[in-house]
């Protein structure tokens, strides 16, 4: 008889054999479901449930029903009005034999709430507030850092003498905001000047703090209720695909592998939001949480969080400022963002179909022949799909699980798929490409198949306790999903982690530059346990960070920082281990739109170094239109990558040449080539802006809301963004469109490719043929590019990130101009323009200076003190020092 009260603890996919609700409250009607295995279809059986609370035992009949194609026995246990433990079990008789299940139990949860705040203590570092509650004899303490961002609640008495709050309102001034206690302690308000950030709900129906606990004092969940004015808007919360602003939504934070069509589900949730009222709030937890942004009630903000603790402790960080300041404070608190190596900012090439040396070399040769630059090549189908660290077709002596193979221990036959892995790495490096290999943190379940080395590794892994464990202390096997029944590596175990990476050390030794760290959404069940004492409550969300951080440290320590991981999943602090991509999506315009939103929401959640599988990776190849439009947007994205899933009847590669071959439309090649070359042209700018963004703790790819928060017209704009400080990008994301409405914020904006000038604020309908993307430069900007001898965008300059063909300084001057700009090679240019018509530039003498004609304010331009010659072109002037 099969019954699991919590199922797999998956909030999106309840099992047919679980309890509903999983954690009953007093008064809830409780249902239980079970399956009986080993009974023939023709056998008639009766299943009943016995329920005991106190001395009372009831017998409840079950009803046989069909759910999701399975026969399931359902019983209603009724509701429970007391806190006493409830026990229940299933019984049946099969062929005259009585069968009894395990005994299950739960303790009903009761809701308690904060009544009023009645006393306070104002210390040097902390303000304490004490309140009485609906839980008889229990008090609740709120605390606020006076010079920091943290506030929270606890039931643990701080051991201080508090003063009574009288009948009058009381005000307390902290460094960043003030607190007022109103209505004799019944209301709390956090504010600065005239702006109220957080405040109690005005009616008693929603207490500021509520929580659920059982009779033992075990706290299951805490809930905060705040008033939210109708004009308040909310952003952030990690990588979200369905929309950029959330008022009216209820969104949870649960790391999840939603294959395609993610909606509000995500691989990278972050319990942090930015409010249009000038603050950001970070819920400091790894546990499951839910944010109700005026979803159930139009003026209530509610935040619920699982606690799973014998006592109540809950903390927030409250950050005050404009959106850029708020995100910077958040990343400072959760981990400084890390700048990837410069080669990560070139175009990437990838496919799940490149399963042998010859194919990889063929793809490299093709991209070189077509003058389509790439700086990174990702190989997914390289391993034996059992150990995930041995190349396919390698020959070797099977070793005990505790021993390690070095590269010299393997033989790579000529007939094999990978006859010379080290030679291949050398070949990629000689062609200016970095090599990224796919990884997954599991010991794969092979059903009845055997793989001697994998079997030895697994036996040793289990013997040493290197796996995640279930509640009984046995190796945890994943109950659902992608790698069902596989073991999961426990990266909180330092000995196990060392063992894991010793097996993979030879990969770095032969020149692998990083890892595509896929998956990580694998912890199901609150009772799973980890070496460091954590449980599934903690590790469902935190596990991908532990996994990826281990790989990131492994690669970057070996390569002295010149490495990265490319990851799908993550949680708070993921910005410390770049980079990430948006997971698995279809090749449709809808998915394109959703991926753009995902990138912008990630940036507002601190995760800046982000990319996506341009034009999607799932299903048949994208149309040429979708492929080109996606490449245009990806060229102005932190990571530019195409990728495809496994082979089908026809070649599914998202390479431009395969799409051209499949469709007969050569524009797939010419269009992608232009934007891949443009990416290399802009690489000095991209790296410089990425470096500035990393230092500042801000995203490279910013919503207009982040830059113009006082302009309410930008709140709902999800299809325009700023790429760095100087460029505004407005991609075409609708099929069949060759024009779109663009919003120009206050200031002057110059079209990057035509030098047309628009003065904002205004909406303007702009044309964009299939080969064009609207991109605008903010007037006053100065940036560096790497152009061909023809000094035109999109021309081939190769993929070498260490040299210039021609360094070009693009200047869009204001009357007074004083700027310093730098590049990825450590060069610096100092620019000073005066009102008397002289522009002085100090920097590389071979630099060309390009200024749009309509903006050229200068009658004289000097480079390093030497007067420049001038060439007039259709829309600009070029200045240079004659050789």
Structural commentary:
With 883 residues, the protein is α+β, with helices and mostly antiparallel strands. Among the domains are: 19-106, Sandwich (Immunoglobulin-like); 110-227 and 279-320, Immunoglobulin-like, CATH 2.60.40.1760. The protein is built from 12 helices and 53 strands. Strands 10, 11, 12, 13, 14, 19, 20, 21, 22, 23, 24, 25, 26 and 27 form a 14-stranded antiparallel β-sheet that branches. An 8-stranded parallel β-sheet has the order 34-33-30-29-28-37-36-35. Helix 9 links the parallel strand 36 and strand 37 (639-642). Helix 10 packs antiparallel against helix 11 (667-696). The chain is globular. The protein starts with 18 loop residues before the first strand and ends with a strand.
Task: Describe the SSE topology.
Layout: E1 19-20, E2 30-34, E3 47-53, E4 56-61, E5 63-67, E6 70-78, E7 86-94, E8 97-100, E9 104-106, E10 110-122, E11 126-133, E12 139-145, E13 150-154, E14 163-164, E15 170-173, E16 178-182, E17 187-192, E18 195-199, E19 209-213, E20 219-227, E21 234-238, E22 250-253, E23 269-275, E24 279-283, E25 289-293, E26 300-309, E27 313-320, H1 323-334, E28 347-351, H2 357-369, E29 376-379, H3 421-430, E30 434-439, E31 442-443, H4 452-464, E32 487-488, H5 494-502, H6 505-509, E33 514-517, H7 536-558, E34 564-567, E35 580-581, H8 589-603, E36 610-613, H9 624-635, E37 639-642, H10 656-663, H11 667-696, E38 701-703, H12 704-707, E39 721-723, E40 727-729, E41 739-751, E42 757-767, E43 775-778, E44 782-787, E45 806-811, E46 817-822, E47 828-833, E48 838-842, E49 848-852, E50 860-863, E51 866-867, E52 869-872, E53 876-880
Parallel strand pairs: 28-29, 28-37, 29-30, 30-33, 33-34, 35-36, 36-37, 45-49, 48-50
Antiparallel strand pairs: 1-2, 2-6, 3-4, 3-7, 5-6, 7-8, 7-9, 10-11, 10-14, 10-19, 11-12, 12-13, 13-27, 15-16, 16-17, 17-18, 19-20, 20-26, 21-23, 22-25, 23-24, 24-27, 25-26, 31-32, 38-39, 39-40, 40-43, 41-42, 41-43, 44-45, 46-47, 47-48, 49-53, 50-51, 52-53
Helix pairs in contact: 9-11, 10-11
GO biological process, one term: carbohydrate metabolic process
Domain Glycoside hydrolase family 31 TIM barrel: 338-688
Protein name: Glycosyl hydrolase family 31
